[in-house]
Every structure is written in structure tokens, then in C-alpha cells.
Request: fold
Amino acid sequence: MIRAPVSSSDYQAAAELRSALRRFLRRSEEIARRHALTPRQYLLLLTIKAREETPGHTTITDLVERLALTQSTVTELVQRAQDAGLISRRHSADDGRVVHLSLTPLGDRRFRVRGTDRAVDLFAVAAAALRPDAPEGLRGPLEGECDETVSTPSFPYGSAVCEVEIDPETGVLQIVRYSSVDDVGRAINPLIVHGQTHGGIAQGVGEACWELCDYDPESGQLRSATFMDYAMPRADLLPSFATEISEVESASNPLGLRGGGEGGTTPALAAVVNAAVDALADLGVEHLEMPLAPERIWRAIRGAGR
Reply:
């Protein structure tokens, strides 16, 4: 199990993307109403435009296959879009079904001069602003700022204590006791929360003690590709966990909820490895790499004794 750290900038980027998507959908609805189209028809037009990077000849049949609609629906859509000025349609002399699609930007990317047909694309404006002969007051990249109000995230809290016994002759580690307390906010169903915590502990202990994606250093071949070779946590390897729930309601949502389950997994790795290192401290062991396989522990003991 590999976990990539998540920074605050990742959450901010996700929030900005979600906000931009909402603004896009609202704008799509406005433009669709203006041109007597449904939002779905408008988005279908955007789909056509995205797939037609350069103007080309497209048949009604092609559009039917692409959009998974009936021919009459696509024909009506193209006609209404043409009437609204969203696309240009030119019939071929050879085949009346051929449509030359040239979708115009739908109001989102154009600066227009009122009362005229003069307009310029947003990207053309951005490129012109970077030209050395642009007026000083207009020179430079186009920038925009906005304030976004987002709700405060709700984080769970907790602690874990692990007790292990290690056979110094063989390096075999046994977890004899494991206790965990998790603050999950308001526990709607405590039984499910306890079950999530137990499963999370098993996953964390499994990563700390047994699980390993082992690759051959010469060929890069995965050598633990089946459960015959990849060690998994099993019930007979784990003690009965002692878990408690601390219900400190979150102030960031109406129900007072926090996350549950991950509070079992996250501290398990550190709790187990630190317990093993502490057990071997008198022998001079100061560090152990995961997973805590018997051979790895045995070599650490022998190495510290030299």
C-alpha cells in the first residue's frame, strides 16, 4: 500500500477545479437558454467542437454515431445551432447529408464591439498583450484574481498503542496487544465505525509487517504477483483489538461528522514499527525498514551486535 502525501495546495486545486466546473455549467445553461437549446444540446455542440479541432466535413451519420442519438435529433440539433449562429452548415453538391462544421466560440472567449460584427478571441488578446509594441498599460500576461469561500475540512483525530514480542533467535515478531482511540465526530452507527477501525488497523499492520511488492532488480519482474507470494494480514496473525470512539463533534458541518476508518490505518504503521524498535533498543537496534519480516529483524539484531 503506497500513500502519496496530500498537501494543502492539492485541496486548493481541487476546490478551484470544482468551482470552475460549476461556473462553466452555469454559463452553459445561460447560453443554452439564450439560443433556445437545452444544456445537454449545448454540451453536445461543445463535444463536436472539441473533436473537430480544424473545420472539416462531417456527415449527419457520423454525428449520430458519435453522440449516440437518432438521426432526426442530430439533424434538428444542427439546424437549430445553425439558426442560432453557433455553427455554419454547407451542403455538398454530391451529398446533401454532408455538413461543414465551423463552430464559433459561444460567447465565453470573445471580446465583441457592441453594434458591430467586430470581435477578437481571448487567446488572441492574450498573445497581443505580450507583444513588445503593446501599450505599456496593457502589456503583460492576462491575469485574474478572485476570492473563494470554502468550508473548513473536518479531520479525525486519534491515538494508537501497540505491544509486540520478538524472538531474538529467529526474528519472529508477534503483536500481543493493540489499542486505539479515534475521534470520528458524531458516530451515527458505532458498530460500523468499530468495524471500519478494525479493518483499518489490519491494513496498517499488514503493511508494517508483511506486505511487500517485490521486484527483481535485474529484470524489473514483479516477484510477488500472486497471493502465494504476497503476504496478507490474516486473523490468526492479529490479536483482538481494543478500540474506543471519542465523539467530539466537528464544527465544520451540520451533522458534526468526521472521517472514520482511516484513523485505524494511519497510525498503525508507526505504532508497530516503533514498538519493534523499542523492543530491540537494548540490543542496539535503532531503525527497521518495513515490512518487519523475520529475516530483516534477525539481520538487524546481528548487525547491531557487531
About this structure: The helical segments are 8-34, 39-51, 60-67, 71-83, 122-129, 190-209, 262-279, 294-305. The two ends are 34 Å apart (CA to CA). The chain has two domains: 23-103, 157-305. Residues 23-103 form a domain with the Arc Repressor Mutant, subunit A fold (CATH 1.10.10.10).
